[in-house]
Amino acid sequence: MNTRILILMLGLLSARYATAAPASDTSDNAAKTDTNACVFFSTLYDWKALDTRHLVIWAPGSNHPYLVTTSFPLTQLQYAERLGFVDGNNDGRLCGFGMDKIVVPDAAFTEQATIASMSQLDDAGLAALSAQYHVKLQRGAGKKKNETQAAKNAAE
Q: CB pairs under 8 A, 24+ apart, for 40-46?
């Protein structure tokens, strides 16, 4: 009886290890989706709210988008005209860790939530979010707008 249990246990263990993913695959996937990205506060360029928990920020400049996810919903995030960013650990950076916060001051009462994750977006990720949320998100959009405004000002 004990031999049967031992054989059954060994069989289950061997099946478990035969179906487990190799460690290198797991680390490669984690490297591709770093949710703890950081940017310096002084380099924040622009932002676009997607829903009550997600927004895209551009920093530094208009060619580096990041997806920011809050720890819980901010009901007025989509409608906010202004946002505040709070450096929770005083390191000068906005990060996907470290208790940094997003504040919506335009609401009837000020809402705030900590940042749960922040990851840099590539062109495919930006296009996927644009399609998912039906908004126009693109790299360099703000730069072109500023250059156009500068050209108009120079012409006057």
A: 40/92, 40/93, 40/94, 41/85, 41/87, 41/92, 41/93, 41/94, 42/92, 44/85, 44/94, 45/142, 46/142
Instruction: Domain ranges for the chain, please list them.
Output: 33-137
Give Cα separations from 105 to 44, 54, 83, 95 (angstroms). 18, 17, 7, 20
Question: What residue has token string 């409608």?
Answer: 79
106: its two tokens:
């335009």
Q: How far apart are CA 137 and CA 146, in angstroms?
A: 16
User: Does 60 sit behind a cis peptide bond, omega within 30 degrees of 0 on the bond before it?
Assistant: yes
Give the Cα-Cα-Cα angle 35, 135, 132 (nearest 5 degrees).
60
Residue segments in the chain with a per-residue pLDDT below the cut of 70: 1-32, 107, 141-156
The pLDDT value given to residue 113: 96
Judge whether 31 and 80 are in contact, CB under 8 Å.
no
